[in-house]
Structures are given as C-alpha cells and as structure tokens.
Amino acid sequence: MSGDTFAVGIHVTDAEFQFVVRVPSSIDSGWSDPDAFQSLVERHVWDRLDRTAVLETIDRTADVGETVSLGTITLEPDGTVVDASLRDPTSD
Prior knowledge:
The structure is a single chain. Helix content is 28%, strand content 33%. The protein is an alpha+beta fold. The protein is globular, with a radius of gyration of 13 Å. It starts with a strand and ends in a 6-residue tail after the last strand.
C-alpha cells in the first residue's frame, strides 16, 4: 500500500478539543508543509465522520487530559486517500 498512515484523535483539555495528528517517523518527502497536510488529514476525517456527533459524544464521555482515538487514515502527498480505518465513538 502506498501513502503514509496518520493516527488521528481528539485531545480533551479544560477549554477545548484539540484535533491530534500523529505523524509517522518516516514520512514521504512530498509532505513539505506540516500545517497543510495536517489540515488535509483533518478535512478527510471529517468528510467520513459526523463532526458534531463525534464531538458531542466525546464531550459526554471523555475526561480532561484524555485523547480519544478516531483511528487512522492513509494519504498520498497529493491528497489521495488510500485507506481509512476510522472509529466513530458515537456507535460504541
């Protein structure tokens, strides 16, 4: 399988939810702008999951300091989604 796999989650703080992208240690050199690919990863995740429902569930069930895993998404540097294994916490 081509592309790089990014683990994604939501970190809960006292004041906000933070979208977290874990970047593989060996990443394709085509990813030259970290902000751009993190935004791309986030956009593709929310294209596949209901953002409002996910965040409402996390608000009800997660503790401050916890990071709720949403799974992984594999992308090529051109933005093509190769694979997505995302977990919808609203279905638990």
